[in-house]
Design brief:
alpha+beta; 3 helices; 2 domains; 5-stranded antiparallel β-sheet; Alpha-Beta Plaits
Length: 179
């Protein structure tokens, strides 16, 4: 019997040791490893979010730089007077005579207002080429929509000039003009 009592005590001791071991493992997992792993996963997630945020901020910065270039190309004002004044300056520089300027009502076109004007000018071929180049290369958004060129009214005159009718448009965003 003493053997049986010893075996039972030893079995109890083994079971108690295993229970203490498992209890320690369970407590260590729940109170030490699990919170540490949660915190590590949270840090990894935040690092990934930070990288994504940095990438987005960089992309937004690049887009703002590109947009700044376009903002400079918008008209100073959304009025025909601005376009008329600009066309007068360009015509003077090219040696073109403006006979008439007729504003046309603005239209909404794909998120932009289109501000058209019709002009009639008199000039020579070279002056016409110089004027159209100045309009198309203007730092503001101005587009030649249509052009009709008629031969000189007095073809035998030494100062014979072409009669040209054009429709030009300036564009600016619906949301407002650049400041």
């Amino acid at each position: 019997m003493p053997e049986l009592a010893l075996k039972t005590t030893r079995d109890k001791l083994i079971v108690l040791t295993i229970a203490i071991f498992l209890g320690t493992v369970f407590a260590g997992w729940n109170f030490i490893a699990k919170p540490y792993l949660k915190k590590a996963a949270q840090i990894r997630s935040e690092q990934g979010a930070d990288v994504t945020k940095k990438e987005l901020v960089a992309k937004i910065g690049d887009a703002e730089k590109r947009l700044a270039l376009f903002r400079e190309r918008y008209p100073e004002k959304g009025e025909p007077s601005w376009l008329t004044e600009t066309l007068n300056q360009l015509a003077d520089a090219a040696g073109v005579s403006i006979l008439s300027v007729t504003p046309v009502s603005r239209e909404l076109f794909q998120g932009y207002f289109r501000l058209p004007v019709r002009i009639e000018i008199e000039c020579g071929y070279h002056e016409l080429g110089d004027f159209t180049a100045r309009v198309e290369n203007n730092p503001r958004f101005i587009k030649i929509n249509s052009m009709r060129v008629e031969g000189p009214r007095l073809p035998d005159s030494p100062n014979a000039k072409l009669h040209v009718s054009m429709t030009l448009s300036a564009f600016y965003p619906e949301a407002g003009l650049a400041s």
